[in-house]
Design brief:
single chain; 95 residues; mainly alpha; two-stranded antiparallel ribbon; 2 strands; elongated
């Protein structure tokens, strides 16, 4: 499965997250101001937002890959990637 968010979707998500933190977390005024400044530096269409979208997509992709079980055919047998990883010796054990 592949999930890719465009920069506008990431901007919407980050706006919702930061608004929730500002409105509901009980943090100090200085912390709220810092979050607002961080958010304004990453306005939709900015280079910073494009960089953030790329980082979010990389992290999301890694999380999905880590939690996805795939079926692999090896030597005529089918097994899951988790089974293959469990049977594989670690690098320390292989030495």
């Amino acid at each position: 499965m592949q999930v890719v968010l465009d920069p506008d979707e990431v901007a919407t998500m980050m706006s919702a997250v930061t608004s929730n933190i500002i409105d509901n977390s009980g943090i100090s005024q200085d912390a709220k101001r810092a979050i607002r400044n961080w958010r304004s530096e990453r306005a939709p269409g900015s280079v910073q937002m494009a960089d953030l979208a790329e980082a979010v997509n990389e992290a999301l992709g890694a999380l999905v890959a880590e939690n996805t079980t795939r079926i692999v055919r090896r030597r005529g047998q089918y097994s899951t990637t988790r089974d293959v990883a469990a049977r594989r010796p670690s690098r320390k054990e292989a030495k």
